[in-house]
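Problem 12. The chain below contains 215 residues. Write out its predicted structure in token notation.
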Amino acid sequence: MRRKTTLPPDGLTGRARRARVEPMAVRPLRDGRYVVETDGGTYVVDVEARTCTCPDNAIRHARCKHLRRVAIEITTGLVPPPGRRRATCAVCGDETFVPMDARGPQLCHEHEHHAGDLVHDRETGSLLVVTRALHTRADETPTDVGRLVSEFETNAEYGDHEPVFEAVYLGSLPVDIGLSELGGLQAYRFPASRLSRVERGFVGTRSLGERLARA
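Solution.
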């Protein structure tokens, strides 16, 4: 449970000021709403519907201090936005927000990879393009030769608990490949932190050939 906290007033007045200076604890619910605990009572806020169970909103239809406080805490990253929950990045350990139904090890924005991203292999120095995320741990994901990803010596320095990504070497990509075709390629499997991002969306809606022609 979160303790009630206050925020700097930032020179504001009225409800905007009270939303910041009055002690409140905001707690997200699984249905996308938020419980706001104050010294005067406990209320339920729905930021998407712009409603709160307090009298100021329910009776006077005002944008109450509770709605404002939830919006502030979402914007500043103190609580997850609707439909997302807290998780710990499997690479750096930082807190991140992920979809409510996300399963397996999770990654923060800095360490996440997406299909089409150009990445650098920290072990070999090679450039690869990510084809897909498997959402499974390195110590439970087999390779084509029957060994787990975590069992390879080249992966010994990377976490067994990290999620696995499939990627293909840049030099092996057909020049006419597009994003929708990446999943059909023969790919290799890597723990997340072995791959460092070079460019997001390197292979996107335009084919690699089209990108190279524009270079």
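Discussion. The mean pLDDT is 93. Students who got a different answer should revisit the alignment rule from Section 12.3.
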